[in-house]
Amino acid sequence: MREVLADIDRWRSQGKRVALARVVGTEGSSPRLPGATMVVSDSGEVAGSVSGGCVEAAVVTEALDVLAGDGRPRLCSFGYSDDEAFAVGLTCGGTIRVMVEPLEW
């Protein structure tokens, strides 16, 4: 989380809304451990990583949807057996669960 704090501060000072995506669980082999964090501004800027690249675009889409929608947090799951996750590149054989929520403070 520390690595994205400067980005959060900059975006917030510019009046942008920010979504926080964090790995909250894994099963089997996974690209990142629980706690891995990505933040996304409402203008589509990204800092951090939840998967080392393999599902980043899908997580950005979820984050932008959270910011544009009702702002309710959502739990997203990506795994090898999930057709969508395979399509976005999670081929490590495991599953990651990512909580995406608006960052309010």
Verbal overview:
By secondary structure, the protein is of the alpha+beta class. The protein is 27% helix and 30% strand. It is built from three helices and five strands. A five-stranded antiparallel sheet has the order 3-2-1-5-4. A hairpin with a 4-residue loop joins strand 2 (37-41) and strand 3. The two termini are 15 Å apart.
**Count of distinct strands:** 5
> How far apart, in Å, are the first and last alpha carbons?
15 Å
- The run of helices and strands is HEEEHEHE
Q: Can you give the helix content as a percent range?
A: 25-40%
Strand fraction band? 25-35%
> What gross morphology would you assign?
globular
Uncertain segments are none
Major sheet description: 5 strands, antiparallel
Number of helices: 3
Domain count: 1
Radius of gyration over alpha carbons? 13 Å
Strand order of the largest sheet: 3-2-1-5-4
Query: On the 0-100 scale, what is the average pLDDT?
Result: 87
Class from helix and strand fractions? alpha+beta
